[in-house]
Amino acid sequence: xxxxxxLDDELLAISYLKLLCEQIEDVEVIKAFNDPKxxxxxxxxxxxxxxxxxxxxxxxxxxxxxxxxxxxxxxxxTTAYKEYAAEAFDLNVVDYVRKPIKKERLxxxxxxxxxxxxxxxxxxxxxxxxxxxxxxIFTDQIAYIKTSEIxxxxxxxxxxxxxxxxxxxxxxxxxxxxxPPKDFAQVNKKEIIAGSxxxxxxxxxxxxxxxxxxxxxLKLQIGETYKxxxxxxxxx
Length: 236
Known about the structure:
- It contains seven helices and 15 strands.
- The protein is of the alpha/beta class.
- Strand 8 (about 140-145) and strand 9 form a beta hairpin.
- The two termini are about 30 Å apart.
């Protein structure tokens, strides 16, 4: 299922794109924006895996927006101008669709997005922008993930050997779409745990095998919303 956001400064273009998307199977438009700043303020909470992004916009163009969201969703660029093609593909976008957009051409772009999303979900590693550049992290090395205290858009990953790596601008929703669901579960609003890092699991608390600053092991409080997912991970 493609869950899509639209960003275009022209309201008529947004209406037309929404109309096209409604005619395409397994595509749902979650929200449309005509202001890049409003889109960036909500991008982490949208739960979308694809963004249809106009390049030519006043104030902040689509190329800059694409850089800022750093791959948190797959991007389909739209524009009436062919001169942006090279820059667009340098950003590793899914597709570059010229306006006026035809339904058949948009279907092709969504098909490409589905294939890329499907492949990424089968991988046993995360490839993402981090504090040390673009990095590949193998999921079997990940013990614990939490929301960064410096910037809530970022996520701190602790590996089994104690190494900490910061994933830049990635929501828990999109992160959980990438991680193997049998191996990871969200514990509360700010933390994800790997099953391999759990020592003790009770009704309200998890004791991990991750050393804490106090000389003991890291303990996590289980949010009510996430109990069923944790039980499923442990086969209960």
